[in-house]
């Protein structure tokens, strides 16, 4: 295959509008080069039946189980089958494969399950829908909702006609200030922005809005890690292993840049949960300072610093200047 599609994990809590967003997309002509995988936690394939009427794109079902815990091998098999069947048909490759996960799925285990597909070179993106009217209540009572928002590179606010968005925006900024936020009342245009969205601007990846205090979600901490002058390349690599080992399930998201000492081009570092993607060179981000943004649950800067032991790294929180690290 000469070209591989983008893999979009569409996540979001129960009733947050994932299926409606997909229906809006499938009604557009631009959706013709899309394949769809739908995960339902029950035996009755409700979402699949709804989406089947919305468009004629290839669709596969993962039913009667949650893709993040019991259907991971089925997901890998399904993606391979879709790609192989498309190639056999002689049609151009898919531009994207969209997985609509169940409303109780956590993104981390789903992304880890894609490891056997690494040789295919799929470009992976996580999109989360957020019900503007119920976001705070969901996040207060369901860890799954927090994990979904924290993992997303893009958060799409839904049901804008039912509620103002100020509280929901504050919540998302506290849980995941790294995410691109989509507030678009026109449903067709919103779908285009989500599924035709281009790559992020690397120079803006660490331009994090002020998350001081995280008042909108006190259990979630947004921390910044910067390296001491004497930190070696091995220290930088060890840090990522130590982060995963110490934080475990408390680690929600990591994003930022590291540099091999003596080089100018930074490497983009990303993780959802404890799953780190391979570092990617980013020549366009030479001016961006080195450092990692860590989003974690039930973890303070002091606890993380202690857990990392004597690692040559500074741990701080964000204050008025989001790129200034305040030791804490």
Automatic annotation (TrEMBL):
<dbReference type="InterPro" id="IPR036627">
    <property type="entry name" value="CobW-likC_sf"/>
</dbReference>
<dbReference type="InterPro" id="IPR011629">
    <property type="entry name" value="CobW-like_C"/>
</dbReference>
<feature type="domain" description="CobW C-terminal">
    <location>
        <begin position="229"/>
        <end position="309"/>
    </location>
</feature>
<comment type="similarity">
    <text>Belongs to the SIMIBI class G3E GTPase family. ZNG1 subfamily.</text>
</comment>
<dbReference type="Pfam" id="PF07683">
    <property type="entry name" value="CobW_C"/>
</dbReference>
<dbReference type="Pfam" id="PF02492">
    <property type="entry name" value="cobW"/>
</dbReference>
<keyword id="KW-0143">Chaperone</keyword>
<protein>
    <submittedName>
        <fullName>GTP-binding protein</fullName>
    </submittedName>
</protein>
<feature type="domain" description="CobW/HypB/UreG nucleotide-binding">
    <location>
        <begin position="8"/>
        <end position="171"/>
    </location>
</feature>
<dbReference type="InterPro" id="IPR051316">
    <property type="entry name" value="Zinc-reg_GTPase_activator"/>
</dbReference>
<keyword id="KW-0378">Hydrolase</keyword>
<dbReference type="InterPro" id="IPR003495">
    <property type="entry name" value="CobW/HypB/UreG_nucleotide-bd"/>
</dbReference>
<comment type="function">
    <text>Zinc chaperone that directly transfers zinc cofactor to target proteins, thereby activating them. Zinc is transferred from the CXCC motif in the GTPase domain to the zinc binding site in target proteins in a process requiring GTP hydrolysis.</text>
</comment>
<keyword id="KW-0547">Nucleotide-binding</keyword>
<dbReference type="InterPro" id="IPR027417">
    <property type="entry name" value="P-loop_NTPase"/>
</dbReference>
């Amino acid at each position: 295959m000469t070209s591989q599609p983008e893999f979009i994990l569409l996540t979001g809590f129960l009733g947050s509008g994932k299926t409606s967003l997909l229906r809006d997309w499938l009604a557009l002509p631009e959706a013709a080069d899309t394949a769809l995988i739908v995960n339902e936690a029950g035996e009755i394939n409700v979402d699949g039946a709804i989406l089947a009427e919305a468009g004629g794109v290839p669709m596969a079902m993962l039913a009667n189980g949650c893709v993040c815990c019991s259907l991971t091998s089925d997901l890998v098999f399904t993606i391979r089958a879709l790609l192989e069947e498309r190639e056999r048909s002689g049609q151009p490759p898919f531009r994207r494969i969209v997985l609509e996960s169940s409303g109780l799925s956590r993104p981390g285990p789903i992304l880890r399950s894609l490891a056997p597909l690494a040789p295919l070179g799929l470009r992976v993106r996580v999109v989360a829908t957020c019900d503007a009217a119920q976001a705070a209540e969901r996040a207060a009572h369901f860890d799954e909702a927090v994990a979904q928002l924290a993992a997303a590179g893009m958060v799409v606010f839904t049901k804008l006609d039912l509620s103002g968005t100020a509280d929901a925006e504050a919540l998302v900024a506290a849980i995941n200030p790294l995410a691109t936020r989509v507030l678009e009342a026109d449903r067709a245009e919103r779908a285009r922005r989500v599924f035709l969205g281009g790559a992020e601007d690397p120079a803006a990846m660490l331009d994090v809005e002020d998350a001081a205090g995280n008042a909108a979600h006190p259990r979630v901490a947004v921390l910044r890690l910067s390296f001491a002058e004497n930190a070696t390349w091995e220290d930088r690599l060890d840090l990522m292993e130590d982060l995963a080992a110490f934080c475990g399930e408390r680690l929600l998201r990591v994003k930022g840049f590291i540099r091999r000492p003596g080089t100018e081009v930074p490497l983009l570092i990303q993780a959802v949960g404890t799953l780190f993607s391979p570092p990617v060179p980013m020549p366009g981000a030479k001016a961006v300072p080195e450092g990692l943004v860590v989003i974690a649950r039930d973890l303070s800067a002091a606890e993380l610093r202690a857990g990392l032991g004597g690692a040559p790294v500074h741990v701080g929180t964000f204050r008025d200047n989001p790129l200034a690290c305040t030791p804490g």
